Amino acid sequence: MGATTVTSPSCSIAATIVAFLAAASLLAASAASPVPAVYVFGDSLADVGNNNHLLTLLKADFPHNGIDYPGKKATGRFSNGKNFPDFLADNLGLATSPPYLALSSSSSANYVNGVNFASGGAGVSNATNKDQCISFDKQIEYYSSVYASLAQSLGQTQAAAHLSKSLFAITICSNDIIHYTKSSSANKASTPSQQFVDTLIQSLTGQLQRLYNLGARKILFLGTGPVGCCPSLRELSSTKDCSAEANDLSVRYNAAAASLLSDMAARHPDMHYALFDASAALLRYINQPAAYGFSEVKAACCGLGDMNAKIGCTPVSFYCANRTSHVFWDFYHPTEATARKLTSTAFDGSAPLIFPMNIRQLSAM
Fold first, then answer.
1. Residues 55-72: pLDDT tens digits?
2. Domain membership flag for residue 295
């Protein structure tokens, strides 16, 4: 005789409760917003605490990070306050999607309200900050398990409907560009810049296709900013100018990503996207600071050394009194004020900064 599998009553009850809570959350979110949830992927610009759970040097769970966050507490965000996912959620009328590594440790994890997989240090390439972060491929692998969980708790049809209305926000590649720019001349000779960009786009093509295969239908893609203007790269120049090489790579990557997304939308008529040209948008603040309420566009607010760019923001670092006047918080990351303005432009702006539609329009589809 075959073995009989006996399900524990307590396990059955727990599973029923999780499914009920997931369904209730889904109904509540659907009533409140056309977008029921946000699933976030990317790097430190979007990390809301995943790296807190890793054995890594790439952390921000200590002062002076979070000095302007509610409760003045460091949360793992690489910022003095809120970051892009926070302002995106605020604009959508949703709660910020929690970090995956905090949720996944719970037996009653509810993924219906959104999840954030972003990890400080991550890049398109798995080699970028290897073993120090959750790579983009690994983030997608984690999302795959979330997809399976949603299908189990909601049913395949309802899970697919839920995900098709949800927003998939992605910001990735700044770290790849920084690493390439800082690499040796020999490395650049063996991998010319255009080949470097082409290789990244080849990887990105497969990554975005996997997300589509796992239910992503509304994609918000944030192109890289003018990476060469971050204090860390400016500080390498004797004139403290932006790195033309890094900024050129950002422009080329953003253009290639735009082409990739356009091709995907042509192949998949049920997929829609918004691409935000963060490079062009942030350069406006840098080139015309007074027009956007800034007075310091070169130096970091928090850090040590020349331009506060030699050492990152740590408990022993100096930090500026007026964070709203600075474009950059530390040697790589924007201030809360910068993140708020950029998100506002992406939400309600127009071409050429965001195209073929803005976030509000994408959300309503």
1. 999 999 999 999 999 999
2. yes
pLDDT at 187: 93
Q: How far is CA 36 from CA 13, 32, 140, 162, in A?
A: 26, 8, 20, 7
Asked whether residue 1 is domain-assigned, the answer is no
Question: CB within 8 A of 80, min separation 6: which ones?
Answer: 64, 65, 66, 67, 68, 69, 301, 302, 319, 323, 329, 335, 336
The three-state secondary structure class of 123 is coil
The reported pLDDT for the residue numbered 23 is 53
- For the annotated catalytic residues, the residue numbers are 44, 330, 333
Q: Give whole-number Cα distances, 285 to 153, 192, 203, 226, 229, in Å.
A: 45, 30, 31, 11, 11
The arithmetic mean of pLDDT across residues 295-311, rounded, is 97
Find the CATH number of the domain harbouring 250. 3.40.50.1110
If one counts the domains in the chain, the total is 1
Q: Could you tell me if residue 3 is inside a domain? A: no
Alpha helices in the chain (DSSP H): 9-32, 84-92, 100-103, 136-154, 156-165, 174-182, 185-190, 193-213, 231-234, 244-267, 278-287, 336-348, 359-364
pLDDT tier for residue 172 given thresholds of 50, 70 and 90: very high
- Give percent above pLDDT 90 in the chain: 89
Q: Which residues constitute the domain of residue 176?
A: 9-364
Q: For residues 257 and 311, is the Cβ–Cβ distance under 8 A?
A: no
**How far is Cα 351 from Cα 220, in angstroms, rounded to an integer?**
15
Q: Does 51 map to a domain?
A: yes
